[in-house]
Amino acid sequence: MARLQEQYRNEIKKAVAAKFGLDNPMAIPRLSKIVVNMGVGKATQDKTVLESAAESLGKISGQKPAITKAKVSVSGFRLREGNEIGCKVTLRGSRMYEFLDRLVAIALPRIRDFRGLNPDSFDGHGNYSLGLAEQVVFPEIDADRIHHTHGMDVTIVTTASNDDQARELLRLFGVPFRQPGARAAGK
């Protein structure tokens, strides 16, 4: 069993239930899934860029990514419907907890000038999204062997009924949120 999964069962579940006064065990928020998406716009000109992005995402997530295709044609971007333009993985179960553990404990601290994640990036339904500028922050990726850096979007989907419950759940998992009033780097 993953370390964070065990921690959720033994400690976090009780703490969240006590803080929000939840008596029903099914009402206690939990992680549902984590979706990691890499949009690769250069894939329309060079297929090797998409292949390297998919390989990197596979190493990071531990499972084979699904290739995403354009749903509509956009002439300004030289994009046709059906073109392969990215890749994504949906993590559930122990892989989800392992990925969150690596993200929080290893990848986020390796970001240059990192002062914490934006605590306001919730969608109103208890789901949190964050963006990473490059895949090199993960230890599975060898910086000397990559030719193209790719950004990625990470969406953490919870069963929380509101953002406050989800924020507390993620805080107890160790997600480093920026303190209110602190400004982001470069702003």
Taken as a percent bin, the fraction of beta residues is 15-25%
Provide the helix percentage: 25-40%
Instruction: Please compute the radius of gyration using only Cα atoms.
Output: 18 Å
Question: What's the total helix number?
Answer: 4
Distance linking N and C termini: 41 Å
Spatial order of the strands forming the largest sheet: 2-3-1-5-4
User: What's the total count of β strands?
Assistant: 5
Largest sheet: 5 strands, antiparallel
Mean pLDDT: 86
Overall spatial form: globular
Derived from helix and strand composition plus strand pairing, the structural class reads alpha+beta
Describe this structure in words.
The chain is built from four helices and five strands, in the order αβαββαββα. The protein has 187 residues and is an alpha+beta fold. Helix 1 packs across helix 4. The protein is globular and about 55 Å long. The mean pLDDT is 86.
Keywords:
alpha+beta, 5 strands, 187 residues, five-stranded antiparallel beta sheet, globular
Q: What's this entry about, in short?
A:
The protein is an alpha+beta fold and 187 residues long. It has helices at residues 3-20, 47-61, 93-107, 163-172, and strands at 31-39, 66-69, 84-91, 128-132, 152-158.
Describe how the helices and strands are arranged.
Blueprint: H1 3-20, E1 31-39, H2 47-61, E2 66-69, E3 84-91, H3 93-107, E4 128-132, E5 152-158, H4 163-172
Antiparallel strand pairs: 1-3, 1-5, 2-3, 4-5
